[in-house]
Amino acid sequence: MFRRSLLAFAAAALVPLFAAPAFAAPASATNVNFHGTLSGAAEVPPKTSSGNGDVLATLDTKTKMLTYTVTFDGLSGPATAAHFHGPAAPGANAAVVVPFASPTTSPMHGTATLTDEQIKQLMAGQFYANVHTAANPGGEIRGQLVSGNMMTHGKPMMHGATKSGAMKPAMGHDMPAEKAK
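and the corresponding structure tokens:
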């Protein structure tokens, strides 16, 4: 009797170990979120600027599509160009890898299909956003893209309005427009 109970207990304990893979949800997330804070101090060499901004980007690893939103203000004049550069660590400069569409006004929204090598560089933190002005043709504000939680002042950074007028946070969930402020 004791042996039969022990075998039943052992069998019951082992069932979850073998059955779990059949019931587990797939663990392959396809979206990776990135953010960056734009400032003159991050430029190489650093710039004295009251300009500032934020970058929010989401990479779909299945389609290799990078979707981004760039916001900025306080520049010395109108932005003349803006783009992602790479590969470069903070403190180093690199070539343009993704030009942003015109007009160069805030907010800027866009998409780009990345190569496998560019995805590796982005995931390694080697992309940065740069906004140029006539007074600072080499760039007035810059921000390194890093992966992780995209919060600004305790609120999710927004990609832009959805068709319903709600804001779409980085995590992909709709948020009523009044809460997005």
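(Above: one complete record from the training split.) Residues 1-27, 151-181 have pLDDT under 50 and may be disordered.
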